[in-house]
Design brief:
By secondary structure, the protein is α+β, with helices and mostly antiparallel strands. The chain has 4 helices and 3 strands. Helices cover about 60% and strands about 20% of the residues. Strand 1 and strand 2 form a beta hairpin.
């Protein structure tokens, strides 16, 4: 056995492990950022759905408190937890139009992903039919 060849092979051992750890770490960070983006999009959809249902309910009843209660109920069912606590909601009735608005910030999970602020609005008009 050639002693020079054995020494060279020993010097290169472990290099693959370092490369694997670096690429696996980067892959994990990218996976977490992508998963965070998916959760944020789900959260925005849940808030949008709550606003739409609240605006419809408030437009039918003519009450902004009914609208706000419906928004809170739907948001608790769909989102709940820490994400829903960061959402501020408001319902306002102006000249026959019920407007439900929500603002908030969904936190990023990693240092590489930013926080996700949003402001969403939904409107509904109560149509009065013939008696």
């Amino acid at each position: 056995m050639d002693p020079w060849r054995t020494d060279r092979e020993l010097d290169e051992r472990g290099v693959t492990s370092v490369q694997f750890l670096l690429s696996a770490g980067l892959g994990l960070i990218l996976f977490l950022a992508l998963a965070n983006l998916v959760v944020v999009q789900y959260g925005r959809g849940a808030v949008r759905s709550a606003l739409e249902q609240g605006a419809r309910s408030g437009a039918l009843s003519g009450s902004s408190s009914e609208c706000l209660q419906r928004v809170e109920d739907v948001l608790d069912q769909l989102l709940g937890g820490r994400m829903s606590r960061s959402v501020q909601m408001e319902c306002v009735e102006e000249s026959g139009v019920m407007r439900a608005t929500a603002t908030g910030v969904f936190d990023g999970w990693t240092l590489a992903s930013p926080d996700f602020p949003f402001e969403l609005t939904s409107e509904a008009v109560a149509e009065v039919g013939d008696p």
